Amino acid sequence: MQLSVALVATTLALGAQALIGALMPGVAPFVLLFPAMLGAALAAGWEAGAVTLVGGGLLTRWMLTRSGTPLIADETAAAVSFGLYVAAGGTVVALAEAYRTAATTLARERRALTHANARLDLATRAAGVGVWDWDLRTNAMVCSEQTKAILGLPAGAPVSRGQIVSATHRADRETTWAQVQRALDPALRDLSPYEYRIVRRDDGRTWWVWAIGEPVFETVDGETTAVRYVGTIQDITDRKLAEDAVRASEQRLRLALEAGRMAVWRLEIGVGLIPTPELNRLLGFAPEARPSMEEILAGYLPGEQERVRGVIEQALARGDRFFEVEYRHRRQDGEVLWLLNRSELVLDAEGRPVSALGVVMDITERKADEERLRLLAREVDHRANNLMAVVQGTVSLSNAETPAALKAVIVGRISALARAHQLLSEARWDGADLRRLVEEELLAFSLGDAARVTIRGDDLALPPAAAQSLAMALHELATNAAKYGALSRPEGRVEVAWRGGRGEPLVLTWTETGGPKVTPPRRRGLGTAILRRALSGSLGGSSRVDWRPEGLACELTLPMTETTQDLVN
User: Fold this and answer.
1) Quick check: pTM over 0.85?
2) Taking the CB of residue 279, how many other CB atoms lie within 10 A of it?
3) Residue 243, φ and ψ in degrees, nearest 5
4) pLDDT (tens digit, 9 = 90+) per residue, 432-487?
5) Using one digit for the tens of pLDDT, what is the confidence trace for 209-222?
6) How far apart are CA 474 and CA 510, in angstroms?
7) How many angstroms separate the CA atoms of 237 and 164, rounded?
8) What is residue 515's DSSP assignment?
9) How far, in Å, CA of 198 to CA of 207, rounded?
10) CB-based burial of residue 527 (10 Å sphere; 0-12 exposed, 13-18 middle, 19+ buried)?
11) Distance between CA 545 and CA 520 in Å, rounded?
């Protein structure tokens, strides 16, 4: 190709030279060869230029010699002239080659830059990253199309510094500008990334962005200043929303764990226990503590480690990765907890545990409730047996002249037991209120006049057995008073008072006034027998009846010592 270009350039130059020589004799014959050399060298390289230089010169000399027109008569001058021609032509060819090489290199670099920019633009658009360049000397901003898309600015339009500032959320402008100042400070050159909110210009929505910039510094007259600030910006709204969702989920999980008094734990073979703040709080460690497995195992009560280990071994023997076990554990403050551990084992290819993940729950209250239910069931059985014995005794001791009268007696006495039982049930069998017990038994016999009955004494809770016994005794006294004593007349009065209790003997006095004249009975009646039987026996109580003429007086005594409490409960 170089030879073809050289022949074309030489032919054109010689043809033009012949034409000009014919029209204007005497014109220097070599002049048109220099443009030919230049054109050939630019078009096809220095080789074509060199061929044009040599070939054009030789052909020009041959043509002059043939025509009999010497170029220069002096042979020496002719030789020097030809040499100068070669030197000048070589310079033209060399300069043309240099220009051609520079132009080719520049064009190649421009193509490479164009391709690089295209790849960068493709990569930034694919990654959602925008590029920006801030000229601090002119305050001019150059932003990529992706940057404009993130900020909600018009595509293809120039961007000003003011638009960038106005897009920044007002609440984040101060902190964002402070980070920019740290980056532009030559003494700091802080390249830390920063996250902030923007308000998009097109739809007004608030987005989160992540930006990082690097300044370009120049030193002028010994002073270093930033002249450019170049960086990237990226939309991280989805990530922020995901982080918020994770935090909300973690918060709900923490609340659920705290409400359920539960904790999550993880164990890696060779690494040890990986604690959590919830587990630390449950076991009595500081939330940020990292207790060792030995410290945690030290809290197991005697025999519990072996029992837990046995449960795990049984699960592995069944080929089961899950196990559940309840055990007792002593917290760091000494409190003993019942814990429920539900866990999953992670096994290797040979079936050996390599890690475990589980949740542990404080079931101390549940265990206490279960124990109370067991005690209550035993207590109900005990109370039922006692009540049936009392009813049986009451029926066996009851008699009357007619079946109707016997029925009334039995119903009255059983009703007294029922009222005592109701009071105990309302108090969950923790004790019956003595004042309410007296009111329930007496007000029914007062004929609607509460002033006929006076009740005095401190508030006192009676154990169940004592409440049933006193209910029977009070019923017998009230029935006797309604039939034969003070309550048989409108003007009659009854006073019930008590003292003691709470570790001391309880002394209850029954005093009647305003009724018929009282005479001592000739024989011991059934009511007196029931009074004595109700308070004696395991309760260790006693009764004393004074048949005063002005009205019956009775004193009921019931020991309320620790031993008696145990007996009656």
Assistant:
1) no
2) 23
3) -65, -40
4) 788 888 887 776 666 556 778 899 999 888 887 787 778 778 878 888 888 888 88
5) 999 999 999 998 88
6) 9
7) 18
8) S
9) 5
10) buried
11) 10
